[in-house]
Specification:
The complex is a heterodimer of chains A (about 270) and B (about 70). With about 270 residues, chain A is of the alpha/beta class. Chain A has nine helices and eight strands. Chain B is globular, with a radius of gyration of 13 Å. The chains are: A alpha/beta (about 270), B mainly beta (about 70).
Chain lengths: ~270, ~70
């Protein structure tokens, strides 16, 4: 692939970076990133990856845009309320950068479909908002040997880690299994500062680009935690857990399964 | 005893177990926390019997979903 004149202009601020150059930009254009969840985390990740010229971006989400999403899910606009989130997200990515090919998956990521989707991509961004999905992505990426960025946000706090399955600590190395039903905070206790999603989702996009271009040091074996109130980032060092049920010495998980959703659902609880 | 809790120097009562530390630190939902002691993630079943000692490094790692804890 060689860059057109327009592309050289569009990506000039990447290209002049010695560490990226024209070759790096071409690499981005031929790369494929999957974003699971077109929500708070997925929004900035999708926008920046599209702007960066990641050639193929897949996006999975079963939801439609709701008014309550707009406080933080910045890829969706007021006029998109009611539209499929993947459609709304695709429209914005293509508007930013027509070089990008967007593949939309208007469905829930489940044990019976996620591996086939993940297989087509180089890197996965977990932008989901629930624990069963986070464990599903972790496990699916392990079985497909795909690197991914995990992130979570809550209230004024965020966290993220990059996982190279089988090589570095995975989500189950830290959190063995989803929390039991009944202990997950109820909707009324939840809530999140909107901009937090922008901070953490942008960091996820940064990790994706670093991985694709083999730049710097990835956030592996390290959980980065962010406290917006204290404006404090901490890198908590971790290592692979020999007792991990997925990638440990006596792994019990040998196939992909959907975890139970242990929380109240939004239909009955407007928060 | 002195130990490092979530990156900060802390002075705590001698001989606390991990379970007691969770109570002492007023962790409301211990089921939402993974505990790393000196670089190793503890099994939940070990919380009760694992005693902390001088110089230990303890991290509480919280489960975090997305903007809605429910989906």
């Amino acid at each position: 692939m060689s860059l057109t004149e327009k592309q050289i202009e569009r990506y000039s601020r990447h290209i002049i970076l010695e560490e990226i150059g024209g070759i790096g930009q071409e690499k981005l254009l031929s790369s494929k990133v999957l974003i699971v969840g077109a929500g708070g985390l997925g929004s900035p990740a999708a926008l920046y990856l599209a702007a960066a010229g990641v050639g193929t971006i897949g996006i999975i989400d079963a939801d439609r845009v709701d008014l309550t999403n707009l406080q933080r899910q910045i890829i969706h606009h007021t006029s998109d309320v009611g539209l499929e989130k993947v459609k709304s997200a695709a429209n914005k990515m293509l508007a930013i950068n027509p070089d990008v090919s967007v593949k939309t998956y208007h469905r829930f990521a489940k044990a019976d479909n996620i591996r086939d989707i993940i297989r087509e991509y180089d890197f996965v961004i977990d932008g989901t908002d629930n624990f069963p999905a986070k464990f599903l992505i972790n496990d699916a990426c392990y079985f497909e040997k795909k690197p991914f960025s995990h992130a979570g946000i809550l209230k004024f706090y965020g966290q993220l880690i990059t996982v190279l399955p089988g090589k570095t600590a995975c989500y189950r190395c830290i959190f063995n299994a989803p929390p039991p039903a009944g202990v997950v905070p109820s909707c009324s206790q939840a809530g999140v500062l909107g901009v937090l999603a922008g901070v953490i989702g942008s960091l996820q996009a940064t990790e994706a680009i670093k991985y694709l271009l083999d730049l710097g040091k990835l956030l592996t074996n390290t959980l980065l935690t962010y406290d917006a109130l204290a404006m404090d980032f901490r890198a908590v060092k971790l290592s692979r857990n020999p007792n991990c049920p997925l990638c440990g010495e006596n792994a019990e998980i040998t196939e992909l399964k959907d975890e139970e959703q242990p929380v109240c659902d939004l239909k009955s609880c407007k928060c | 005893m002195k130990l490092i809790m979530n990156g900060k120097d802390s002075n705590l009562e001698e001989g606390l177990t991990v379970s007691q530390l969770l109570v002492e630190q007023k962790v409301k939902m211990p089921e939402m926390v993974s505990v790393e002691l000196n670089g190793k993630i503890l099994k939940r079943s070990e919380f009760e019997n694992t005693k902390l000692s001088e110089g230990d490094k303890v991290e509480f790692l919280y489960f975090m979903g997305g903007g809605n804890v429910s989906n």
